Amino acid sequence: MHADIRPARASDIDTLVSIENSVFESDRLNRRAFRNHIGSGTTSLLVAERDGVVLGYALVFYRRGVKIARLYSIAVASSEASAGIGRGLLAAAEATVRANGRSILRLEVREDNLRALELYKRAGYRPIGRRENYYEDGAPALRLEKDLGGSTEQ
Ligand SMILES: CC(C)(COP(=O)(O)OP(=O)(O)OC[C@H]1O[C@@H](n2cnc3c(N)ncnc32)[C@H](O)[C@@H]1OP(=O)(O)O)[C@@H](O)C(=O)NCCC(=O)NCCS
């Protein structure tokens, strides 16, 4: 079902925290983290919204002078799962990365998160490594990367 994607605003924080707490069991972003990422020059925080209700988000980190951006987190409210919102957020995050002059997007994902792995695989991400003991509970992460092609920076 259709959702609009736009940069996050301060008024989204309550919903973002509640999505975060409902979908992740550890390594959660808290209220202060979400607040810091709104309007920040070094991150892009995008939300998916339908009829004024925020349904999910994607968060990208940048480093000055570095062509590689990092998809730090992406999440969709479980009531909206499998409706294409995750895919839409990922595509919007990639477009934002390119518009910010970066050409590669990297991410870490739990090795047992088959759902997210399937989303990334279908979107063209390829494995570039593995990190032991990456998450708070000791679970390993797979590192994935996608070459987004030339930047669209004006
Ligand atoms: C991973 C997540 C963002 C996907 O969001 P979503 O809106 O449900 O995903 P979409 O509907 O866009 O589906 C994208 C792809 O995921 C896979 N997928 C979706 N539902 C699935 C299911 N029930 N079983 C297996 N794969 C599934 C499919 O490959 C799907 O592509 P397709 O629609 O072409 O078949 C969401 O499940 C989520 O928030 N999970 C918890 C947080 C999380 O794990 N984030 C990733 C951290 S790295």
Brief account:
This protein is α+β, with helices and mostly antiparallel strands. The chain has four helices and seven strands, in the order βααβββαβαββ.
CATH level-3 fold name: Aminopeptidase
- Percent of residues in helices: 25-40%
- Strand order, largest beta sheet: 1-2-3-4-5-7-6
Report the bound ligands by name, code or SMILES: coenzyme A
Provide an overview of this structure.
With 154 residues, the chain is α+β, with helices and mostly antiparallel strands. It has a single domain, classed as Aminopeptidase. 27% of the residues lie in helices and 32% in strands. It contains four helices and seven strands, in the order E-H-H-E-E-E-H-E-H-E-E. It has helices at 13-23, 31-37, 85-99, 114-122; strands at 4-7, 43-50, 53-61, 68-76, 104-110, 126-131, 141-147. A seven-stranded mixed sheet has the order 1-2-3-4-5-7-6, with helices on both faces. 28% of the residues are buried. It binds coenzyme A (COA). Coenzyme A binds at residues 23, 74-76, 81-87, 109, 113, 115-116, 118-119, 122.
